[in-house]
Structure to design on (338 residues):
């Protein structure tokens, strides 16, 4: 089979590999689609360190079970995965905080993932509930968004909201958050430098969109009479994005730095000014088992729109071009397929 292998920082290659063989309790998934995540791009650049190359990347997948070494999983079932394989027994796992488990392994991070024609789901992952089965009514073009949607639902649950929110970035995550914010009844403003992505945000319900120019940011502040109640930064949290976040939030407002940050990036605050501004600073990342189940239910209900998000498809054989496309932010979501 063909697979896209992250060999080391700045080195990605398409390999010919054997189809995985199964041990007792394992499941073999044939990949239909797998989305390229911003975390994969960051790992390739060397901005994040929670990957263990060489590894087949890919954790936002939709697939079909084609071989099963366990009686409770049927061939032909439509599936995706919870890519955080944790111990299932520690205090964190028992409290649905698997992401803090000290023995965690990530699909597409530490063990081979979905940028391949076939992926092995190990017995331990199935035993701990990390194989997510869905009805055939969910097409693979929507199923691949189950994990990103779960991340967004987790962020919405953790963030403090009042009446208005500014979402920084209109990539896949920002556009999912836009829809969730509107479902929550919030006045929703999206800040995005790319015109084609601002256009998608408008079609998905954003009340207003803004570019990142000083004039546009000033207009947003004026429109919201001093700033929004909440900012969710769904973009790379570099110095420019951090500055915009603080510019558009009101005094006493909440800032959630959801997006990844380049290695070594810092937020430096004057503590006295911070004290009197009353900002609530936080970060959300990943998902819980509960948020993935809620995501599954929203997909079943067809509660969100994903068609405008999935814009660019590449065969796995053209994996390097797919990564270049995603890194250049052409379209919105880039996916690979067999």
């Amino acid at each position: 089979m063909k697979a896209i292998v992250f060999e080391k920082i700045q080195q990605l290659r398409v390999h010919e590999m054997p189809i995985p063989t199964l041990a007792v309790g394992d499941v073999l998934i044939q990949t239909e689609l797998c989305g390229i995540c911003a975390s994969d791009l960051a790992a390739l650049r060397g901005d994040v360190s929670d990957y263990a190359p060489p590894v087949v990347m890919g954790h936002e997948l939709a697939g079909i079970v084609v071989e099963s070494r366990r009686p409770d999983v049927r061939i032909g079932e439509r599936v995706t995965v919870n890519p955080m394989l944790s111990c299932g027994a520690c205090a964190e796992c028992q409290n649905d905080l698997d992401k803090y488990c000290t023995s965690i392994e990530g699909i597409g991070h530490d063990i081979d993932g979905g940028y391949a024609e076939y992926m092995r789901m190990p017995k331990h992952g199935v035993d701990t509930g990390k194989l997510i089965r869905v009805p055939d009514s969910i097409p693979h073009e929507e199923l691949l968004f189950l994990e990103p949607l779960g991340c967004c639902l987790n962020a919405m649950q953790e963030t403090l909201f009042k009446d208005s929110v500014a979402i920084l970035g209109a990539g896949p995550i920002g556009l999912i958050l836009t829809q969730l914010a509107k479902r929550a009844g919030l006045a929703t403003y999206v800040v995005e430098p790319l015109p084609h992505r601002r256009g998608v945000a408008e079609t998905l319900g954003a009340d207003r969109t803004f570019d990142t120019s000083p004039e546009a940011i000033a207009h947003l502040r004026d429109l919201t009479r001093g700033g929004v109640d909440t900012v969710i930064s769904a973009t790379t949290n570099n110095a420019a994005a951090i500055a915009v976040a603080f510019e558009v939030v009101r005094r006493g407002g909440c800032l959630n730095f959801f997006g990844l940050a380049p290695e070594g990036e810092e937020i430096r605050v004057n503590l006295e000014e911070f004290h009197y501004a009353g900002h609530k600073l936080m970060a959300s990342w990943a998902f819980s088992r509960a948020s993935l189940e809620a995501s599954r239910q929203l997909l079943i209900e067809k509660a969100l729109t994903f068609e405008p998000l999935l814009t660019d498809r590449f065969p796995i054989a053209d994996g390097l071009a797919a990564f270049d496309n995603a890194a250049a932010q052409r379209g919105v979501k880039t996916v690979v397929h067999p």
